[in-house]
Structures are given as C-alpha cells and as structure tokens.
Amino acid sequence: MRYAVQPLQPGDRPPNVVLDAVSRDGTIALDEFRGRSPVLIGLFRGLLCPFCRRHVAAMAQLNPALREKGIHSLAVVNTPVERARLYFRYHPISGLLAASDPERVSHRAFGLPLLEITENETDWPSKVGMDMVMTMRVEQPGELPEPMNPAAAGDLLNEKDGYEIMEADQQVRVPGHLQLVGQFLLDRDGVVRWSFTEVEGEGRNMCRALNPEELISAAAQVAS
Length: 224
Hints:
Blueprint: E1 18-21, E2 27-29, E3 39-43, H1 50-68, E4 72-77, H2 81-90, E5 97-100, H3 105-109, E6 114-118, E7 127-129, H4 130-133, H5 150-161, H6 167-171, E8 177-179, E9 182-186, E10 192-197, H7 212-223
Parallel strand pairs: 3-4, 4-5, 6-7
Antiparallel strand pairs: 1-2, 1-5, 3-9, 6-8, 9-10
C-alpha cells in the first residue's frame, strides 16, 4: 500500500483499507462506502487515550445528524479488536461503526504521522519536545478544573474514568512516540472533502475535539 507523507487534503483519495470490525463481525473496508454513500472516518489512538475515548463518544452523538444526511460514520482505534469489543460492551456507541487498527495502517494511509517525543527538540509534525508539550493547554469544560497540558490532563481524565490499562493496551504503545489523529469526511466517490487533524496548527489541535458546527456545515455540502 502507498502511504501518504502528509495528511490527505480535500481532493485527495485515500487507498482502500480493510480493518477488523469492532461493532460487528468480520471486516470493514473503505471500498464498502465508495459509490454508495459519504463517510466520516475518525482515526484515533488506542482507547487508553482519554481524549480519543471522548472523541469516539462525540462521533456517536453526531452520528444521527449525519445519518439524516445519508452520511455514515466510522471510528477507528489502535486498540486490538477483542479489547475494543470489551470496552464498547460497557460503553455502547449505538449505531456507530467501529474498527480496530493496532498496526495504524489507516493512519499511515491518511498521512497521520507517528510523533516522536523528545526532551527539547521540536520539528513539527515529526518531533515535539516535552518543553513544548508542557506549554500546550487542553480545555475540557466540566471535566478539567482549568486548561492543562496534555500529559497532566490525560492523567487526570484517566483517573476520573477509572480506565484499567491492560496488556492489550500496552501492546500497541510505541515508546517515546505518540500517534497523531484526525477525522476525514469523504464524499460518495471516496474523495476527501473536509478534515480536522492534530497535525494542523503546529500542535494547537493536540487532544482537541473538532467543531461540530463546522463538520455539519461540511456534511451538508457533501450530502447536497
């Protein structure tokens, strides 16, 4: 498979990717949607990431509004399939398609890099220094007491969620690295029409959720 060297942009067409389905038996392939319907694809880190768990839940909440426009939604997590199925058994995402991609094949296909975390060297989006990470701020109104750096915010949210990190979660970790994530809206022909990724903004989008109004506006244009 040919991988993208940077995040796919509007007008780009991703290759077909076949993944183990979490929300049903069998597999899910991007080619299932081509020629049939537009699709919003969310490419996330493993479920051990508290921000990604919230992004998936937000996709599930937006799914009914997108389905009214004829748009499917697919959430992809780095978590191994059986571990992901166990999690979603207790945290249902009714109506939302989900798939497992522990090898991050889909992330590479869409050009989302594996970010190297260094002590103080930043070359975004391939490297980021912890000195820069500590200056970033994540806002989670109602869940965080104040804007916090991603590391501190993640620790607090994981503690709040009581998420138990299991061996399957550990298996997909890449020491000293962090998978960047994003969401891509593809039209009926499988062409990217809109995206929101952590790559944009020199790190200002790290752990941030997309703007629902912006997504729905883009969806309306794709559906028309």
